[in-house]
Amino acid sequence: MKSIILSILIILPIFTFSGCSWWSVTPRTETVIDRVYIPEECPTFTHSLRISGSKYNVSKEYNQTMVITLLDPFLESLERNKLARQTFNNGVTESNKELLIPGTPETSNFERVQKRIFVARDCPKYVYKPVVKARKLTDKFSADNNTTYVVISLNNMVFSMEKHKLAKEVYNGHIDTINKKPFTEEMKSKFDGYMKITVDKINDTIAAIKGKAKDEAFDFAKEKAFGKEEE
Asked: What is the residue range of 208's domain?
């Protein structure tokens, strides 16, 4: 009896110091939620104002109706319009970007999942109005020799300005349509059906499909061999 007790006392320290145990505990996996804020995407305004003109020549006769303007203010007007469009588009593009706020894990054993948060907003309209100062070129016009002028046909001037105005109206009308759509509800119905599928669920689904296929194959073979049973 004493020899049995001694054997047990000797074996237990071996298991203790060798790191062996009678059972193992599976560590808990922490789920860390990363929030992804997805704003409603807004379009940019892409139309560029283009007005074609030529340098004024004192010795040249202009038969059609022309308008004349100073070169420096004319170029400044076009640059201001270009800068306004670029500034507007840069702001829209930056606001369209998704924002990721990562969650902070509390343990070393974790997995990350993403939660989509759709942010509804009103897209901005493009309201900048270009101003190009010009006057009709007449025989009474007296040019300053130290100043550079630009001559533009009236038709070209009107067409370019009206085209820009129409492009802005179409764009802003499109913005009104976008702002009326229930963005968040549309996105929720699109993505709420998504769920995390574990390996166990996939295996269960595969097993169910295989079982159903096996039963249908058996019924088909039985029907071929013995005929369809009458109900």
From this structure: 195-225
